[in-house]
Design a protein that fits this description.
141 residues; alpha/beta; 4 strands
Length: 141
């Protein structure tokens, strides 16, 4: 059984903190969950908006880089960008690194509503992937 999960993306500002918060919401303290990025970044304000729609506060998120985390401490490392997958495999070349191809909502070029919708789609895609990947956490008692 998985005991610890790390999510990685480019700047630890959009996809990886969303994934970590979503899994933490379901797992509580049953799993060690963290997130990191290839580069140092700051939390994207649109992440806060779409996570707040679920009642999840992101104010405690402190962005960090993969070099600040010991990947060997995690049973599973989920890379959410190709760059994160490459970097994670450099730091920890083993089979426990998974790659999930998740769109980058920050590339949306519409107005505010279109941007929020793009972030919401990513959030919902992450929720669905998490439920499939971690059925032991998402099954109803």
């Amino acid at each position: 059984m998985t005991k610890s999960v790390l999510f990685a993306c480019n700047m630890n500002s959009v996809r990886s903190p969303m994934a970590a918060a979503l899994l933490r919401l379901e797992a509580g303290d049953r799993l060690k969950i963290d997130s990191a990025g290839v580069y140092e970044g700051g939390l994207d304000p649109f992440v806060e908006i779409v996570m707040d729609q679920l009642g999840v506060a992101m104010s405690g998120h402190e962005p960090k880089t993969l070099s600040e985390v010991d990947l060997a401490d995690f049973d599973v490392v989920v890379a959410l960008t190709p760059e994160a997958a490459v970097e994670a495999r450099k730091l920890l070349p083993r089979a426990a690194i998974e790659f999930w191809d998740i769109e980058n909502p920050s590339e949306e070029r519409g107005g505010r509503d279109a941007i929020v919708a793009a972030y919401g789609r990513v959030r919902d895609e992450l929720k669905a992937k998490l439920a499939r990947r971690f059925p032991e956490i998402y099954k109803k008692p």
